[in-house]
Amino acid sequence: MKFSVSSLAVLATCASTSAFAPSNVNVNINVGSQSQLNAKNTFFQSIEEGVKGAAAATFLAGAIWASPAAMVSNDAISGSHLLNLNDNVRSSIVADAKEMASGSGSRVNKDAESLLRLGLPIPKDKDVRKFVVVAEEIKQDIGTKRKAASIDGIKKTKSTLKSKSADFTKMCRDTNECTSIIADMTALLDPMDAAMKDAQNFFNGSDQERKVLDDAYAGYDKLQKLMTALEEQMVPKGFVTPVPSDYADLPQLRGGRATVEFVLNKPDGGEFNVEGKLFPTAKMVMIIDGYTAPVTGGNFVELVDKGFYNNMKIQRSDGFVVQTGDPDGVAEGYTGGTPSKSVGKGKHGERLIPSEIFCKGDKGPFYETTIEDEGRGGEATVLPFSSFGAMGWARDEYDANSGSSQFFWLLFDSDLTPAGKNVLDGRYPVFGYVVEGADFLRDVKEDDIIVSAKVTAGIDKLVLPK
């Protein structure tokens, strides 16, 4: 299947799921970020790109509503020809595209760390969620230069911390730790407030304005990390996502999250180009979620810890996904260890893992089926494919339990893949997000090499089969 540049954006809502099959399955898509690489430049560039993305999403949503049949061709569905804007489309795809378009827009939550916070299993979290929503709007207001609104948001955040601090600390496993976190959060707010008030006094677009906005944004970045630490403290002691005993013979990430770091090089010694800035290596930091995807996350963390991905090449980079995990040889996945009795082994002895989908409102994931198989199409998953660099588990298109070691980073603009309104959520498990260095994915190409893959935190959460 091939996509034209003009129709690439539409694929977030109407692409075939074959786009995420293992890399050695004969399905090809050909088209022609470190989040803190350069805080001063990347932040404002990302705002400009976000505005453009929102405009594109609005146009495409309108186009799909007005004439969805104009977006995809029958030949494209069969996988043989280039997508064109003036061909016909199958009626089922048209219906799906209309519904998906209704959910797109600039207010889609694209922030990986925000999504991870929302995915934490916190009981009775109404007050803390309200607080976090107000605090997170500060980032948006700084980015759009809504200076008065950001000052108001900082004021509300400070007021809530003062009035609710006792309630928040009672929710924590370690009240002293949370008291310290809240004190650190409060201390950040006055400098942020001062920076935004200074910004009101400078000319729009001036170097002085940029500097104080950068200072405010840097303060927010520290604030949101503390918000994460605070909410993680609110997860009940000993909490473990329930997993059926059928999968006790597979690795699991139990009762928490792990941090994984990848370092990539170009095979010819070249450099990675990110917004015109060159880097000799690409370093990405990922959070792997054992609360939402304990089996998928455990499988990945174990493979990283074993060195499975070290010196492995990137096998696919098409502007839609970056994918790897296919070892050399005939096997399509990891062949070490003992296959699970529940899902068995692949045709070349690969250890397979079941599909693992966790919908909002459920007490745990369901296994071996997709959201559509369960008759729940359109429901939102706890972790959605709405952040650049969302990590999904690759599998054969028609077998939900054929995943082994291959995974992908999604590159599509999240304005066109809103949670619960795309063909990815609930068909493929999201097991983590890139939280630092996602911009590098824009210049990661096929044959780039993962020179290092390691678990830097949370290895104690990995539970191996007995």
Helices, by number, come to 10
Radius of gyration: 22 Å
* Amount of helix: 25-40%
| Uncertain regions spanning at least 5 consecutive residues | 1-19, 24-106
| Strand-pairing-aware structural class | alpha+beta
SSE pattern: HHHHHHHHHEEEEEHEEEEEEEEEE
- Beta-strand fraction estimate: 5-15%
Distance between the termini: 43 Å
Number of beta strands: 15
Widest sheet: strand ordering: 6-14-2-5-13-11-12-8-7
Summarize the biggest pleated sheet. Answer: 9 strands, antiparallel
Show the helix and strand layout:
Elements: H1 11-14, H2 39-66, H3 74-78, H4 91-101, H5 112-118, H6 126-143, H7 147-170, H8 175-199, H9 207-233, E1 252-253, E2 257-265, E3 272-274, E4 277-279, E5 282-289, H10 294-306, E6 312-313, E7 316-317, E8 321-324, E9 356-357, E10 366-367, E11 390-393, E12 407-410, E13 430-436, E14 449-457, E15 462-463
Antiparallel strand pairs: 1-15, 2-5, 2-14, 3-4, 5-13, 6-14, 7-8, 8-12, 9-10, 11-12, 11-13
Helix pairs in contact: 2-4, 5-9, 6-7, 6-9, 7-8, 8-9
Structure commentary:
Helix content is 35%, strand content 14%. With 466 residues, it is of the alpha+beta class. The protein is globular and about 65 Å long. The N terminus is likely disordered.
Search tags:
10 helices; 15 strands; 466 residues; two-stranded antiparallel sheet; alpha+beta; globular
Short précis:
The protein starts with 10 loop residues before the first helix and ends with a strand. Helix 2 crosses helix 4, helix 6 packs antiparallel against helix 7 and helix 7 runs antiparallel to helix 8.
